[in-house]
Amino acid sequence: MKNAITLKTVNELLQFSFYIPSYQRGYRWTAQEVTDLLNDIDEFIPREVNGTDEKTWYCLQPIVVKRKENNAYEVIDGQQRLTTIYLILHYLNQGYVESRRDNLFSIEYETREKSKEFLQNPEAKNNDNIDFFHIHNAYTAIRAWFSNRGNDFDESMYRSKFKFSSKVIWYETMERDTISVFTRLNIGKINLTNSELIKALFLNNSNFHSENNERLRLRQIEIANEWDNIENALQNNKFWYFLSDKYVTENRIEYIFDLMKESDNLDRYATFRYFNSKLNNKSEEDMKQNWEDVQFHYQRFNEWFNDRFLYHKIGFILNTQIVDVKTLYKKSSMMQKNAFIDYLDCIIKDFYRKDCLLDLDFEDKHTNSVLLLYNILTMLQNSHDGSHFPFDTFKLLKWNKEHIASIKEAIPQNNRNDWLSDVRCYIDIEKPESSNLITDLDACLLHSTFDDDDVFIPLFYKITDHFNQYMSNDDINGISNLALLDESTNKSYKNAVFPLKRKRIIDLDKSGEFVPLCTKNTFLKYFSDYPPKISFWSQEDREMYEKDLIRVLSEYMEVDGCDAE
Predict the structure, then answer these.
(1) Alpha-carbon distance 229 to 223, whole Å?
(2) How many CB atoms lie within 10 A of CB 552?
(3) What is the mean pLDDT of residues 458-462?
(4) Backbone angles phi, psi at 8, to 5 degrees
């Protein structure tokens, strides 16, 4: 038999008895954790689910069990939660005469003699062991919480909501070795994620009604294989980071289920709850239609990924968060491909409708995305190049805007000796001021005075002026002095002079590491007339770079002359 996952209301737990084995740690919930749970249930308001007779319910997280006999279960995981549920029910029972009280489920701890009896009277202080101490404190917190509710509080309504509108995710394992299950749960090898829970809905026979069990079994095997194919495809980082910027290493198929969820509920198991309402106790046809919807999402994303134009435009839109993937999926499903392509261009243009290219600077919130768009459009304009922008590397290495030529405002605070040593060999010795500059630099290193601001800062200014001498300092923070650099380069070469950054780019390119095309073109001076001044970023370089920015981006945004907002 397969492991079974179902939902059970708190009321449905009353018929059972539970056994807490010795490998479990004792009860340790604090008064704050108990109070948080009570508040969550109090604040939860069941609502009608559109188009059904059902109402929303509060999720009390998973309880993992193994049947021992009849209605007796060994608790493998979730005993803290289960004990707290019992304590709340016990308190709520006290408001009724004994004949009208609920017969509660029982809990017995293997390592705590008379635990079953103690739980029948948790208000009695008992310091025989640490578990009883914490259980008593938790019960005291429950009594205090209800006592502080005030005259307008409806305890009977709370009781009803707790019993009938609060559910646990009931995970019943059929494995013999419960210690192995417990170990795998606690080291993260059993993932009770939304996707794993949803998979059980698709693959458990008990969730569906069909007269042809063999056909259903074969269909479920087919779904399992298709599930694996989708998950394996999404394990390709190039595909995954094209769609998402979340660092997720497994169960990536959950991304599709989260998109399909028609709810704004943000609790941990909201996606599972949504699919449970769609799949639990439904027909084979319902299962087929819901699984086809999953496949349609995957096939659409795969189509985008394999179309070079759609890959770049959609990847850019998602990275820049112009619209979300759910919106794009709906639009793509409604439109012909050419109309969808036009739509993508329109929303990019609309995103930059208030921006002027030449007005953008280092502080502008859109500068980073404009430089990314510049790189992507440059790649797309080469019809003979089949390469793809690697969104995975771009996101993982955290490429961001940085100055091409160094600026005086960013004075190095750390590793100043390294900064001076690195820059020395690039000083142009043919310049009249170079001899004195090298002498001052060597003296600073020799006498270790680089930590003295009165010595280092004037020297830093002179070196910066030396490397920026062929460039106007006007608008040094403007976009024509900005390019995308990876986080490692930014940290290691923070405000390094141009030739050091250039060397870093060349070294990355030589080693086969990713360098955005336009960053490489800029630092290798592909836009400049020859012979260029290799170790200097000149005014001519900036102007040629600016012309190329205009050439590529003018279709998507105003170049200059924008009216002030």
Answers:
(1) 10
(2) 19
(3) 95
(4) -135, 135
* pLDDT tens string 387-410: 899 999 999 988 999 999 988 888
In a 10 Å sphere around its CB, with 0-12 CB exposed, 13-18 middle and 19+ buried, how is residue 428 labelled?
middle
117 or 201, which is more confident? 117
Q: Which of 116-130, 231-245, 460-474 has the highest mean pLDDT?
A: 231-245
Roughly what angle, to the nearest 10 degrees, separates helices 31-43 and 79-93? Answer: 70
Which pLDDT band holds residue 565 (cuts at 50, 70, 90)? Answer: very low
Residue 289 pLDDT exceeds 60: yes
Axis crossing angle, helix 155-164 with helix 79-93, rounded to the nearest 10: 140
Distance CA 20, CA 108 (A): 6
Structure tokens at 142: 């429950």
d(CA 506, CA 467): 19
The domain ranges of the chain are 4-187, 205-351, 357-406+468-553
- Give, in order, the Cα–Cα distances in Å from 372 to each of 101, 183, 272, 399, 432: 66, 46, 36, 9, 40
Residue 79, phi then psi, degrees to nearest 5: -65, -30
Residue type (1 letter), 235: Q
pLDDT mean across residues, the chain: 88
pLDDT tens figures, 116-138: 888 888 988 877 778 888 899 99
Q: What is the DSSP letter of 267?
A: S
Token pair 């050419």 in the structure block, residue: 338
Phi and psi at residue 66, to the nearest 5°: -135, 130
* Residues in Cβ contact with 11 at an 8 Å cutoff, skipping those fewer than 6 apart: 163, 164
Residue 228 — very low, low, confident or very high, per pLDDT cuts 50/70/90?
Answer: confident
What is the per-residue pLDDT for 533?
A: 82
| pLDDT given at position 221 | 75
CA 526 to CA 530: how far, in whole Å? 9
284 residue type, one letter: E
- What's the rounded Cα separation, in Å, for the pair 145 and 457? 62
Residue among 476, 509, 479, 505 nearest 493 (CA): 505
- DSSP for 37-104 reads HHHHHHH----BPTTSS-B--EEEEEEEEEEEETTEEEEEE-HHHHHHHHHHHHHHHTTS-GGGS---
3-state secondary structure of 347: helix
Intra-chain end-to-end CA distance of the chain, in Å = 67
555 phi-psi bin (left φ>0, alpha ψ -120 to 50, beta other): alpha
Using DSSP bridges, classify how beta strands 166-172 and 72-77 pair: parallel, antiparallel or unpaired.
unpaired
